[in-house]
Design brief:
Blueprint lengths: L2 H33 L4 H10 L3 H12 L4 H12 L1 H10 L8 H9 L3 H8 L7 H28 L2 H25 L1 H18 L9 H19 L7 H20 L1
Length: 256
């Protein structure tokens, strides 16, 4: 079997579980898109071009607030900027001879989950593997949003209201494990909640959409936290331990 075809089929197989998860999340996102006034085709196109639940949720809230396009661009940039880092990391997995076109196409389809299965591959990454995962996962994401909008037009208001909560549940499920694993992250999350609530009560910021407020606070709070609590380089710690050990050995020799 052709090497590219084999990689493509492997990508499809690994992308099936991702596609199933995407559909359920995108369905809830479609409920929010319906509230923003999007029709099924607009929702499908939006999800086909924007592969992030947080980014799309921010996009829909900006639309509901009738905010300008510049604000939408800034909000989506902040919520999706992590994919630039993922693209840089994933580019190191490609064979040096991989064309720029392949790199751009793979970069377009990067999501958290597709990045995860791609970075975990052994050896050089074949871009056709990503194309296989993208071919099954991204249409499922877009279809889920469109069907969610259709359901929002058919289901009773009580059911729509209940389904719209599912998206918030997903966001909570993302931050809770990280907060439990790292006290600093947990503290930053708690501070973010408090500051966000405080800002929502200050009339000075009433002219800004909720997404714009959240995006600005994200940049501000994350920047302060990164400055106050920088991650230590793994290489520095052994060196420090080695210096401490050498100092202890020297002291022992002096005593002897």
């Amino acid at each position: 079997m052709n090497r590219n075809k084999y990689a493509f089929i492997n990508g499809i197989c690994d992308g099936i579980p991702i596609a199933l998860g995407y559909f359920s999340v995108a369905f809830s996102l479609g409920i929010v898109a319906k509230k923003a006034g999007l029709d099924p085709f607009q929702g499908f196109l939006s999800s086909l071009l924007n592969h992030a639940s947080a980014g799309e949720y921010a996009e829909f809230t900006v639309i509901m607030a009738n905010a300008p396009y510049l604000e939408m661009a800034f909000v989506i940039l902040v919520t999706n900027i992590r994919y630039m880092l993922m693209s840089c990391a994933l580019s190191q997995k490609f064979d040096p001879k991989t064309s720029h076109l392949h790199r751009l196409l793979v970069g377009f389809g990067i999501t958290d989950e597709i990045f995860g299965i791609s970075i975990g591959r052994t050896g050089a990454l074949n871009p056709w593997y990503n194309y296989g995962a993208m071919a099954i996962a991204l249409p499922s994401w877009a279809a889920g949003t469109a069907i969610g909008i259709v359901a929002g037009n058919v289901l009773p208001a009580s059911a729509v209201s209940a389904l719209s909560v599912a998206l918030y549940g997903m966001f909570i499920a993302i931050i809770i494990p990280a907060s439990k694993a790292n006290r600093i992250v947990g503290g930053v999350v708690a501070v973010s909640f408090l500051v966000s609530f405080a800002v929502s009560k200050i009339s000075l910021f009433d002219h800004m959409s909720d997404s714009m407020k959240i995006s600005l606070l994200t940049v501000l709070i994350a920047g302060i936290a990164a400055y106050l609590f920088p991650e230590k380089d793994e290489e520095e710690e052994p060196e420090e331990e080695e210096r401490t050990g050498n100092a202890g050995a020297d002291a022992t020799r002096e005593v002897i």
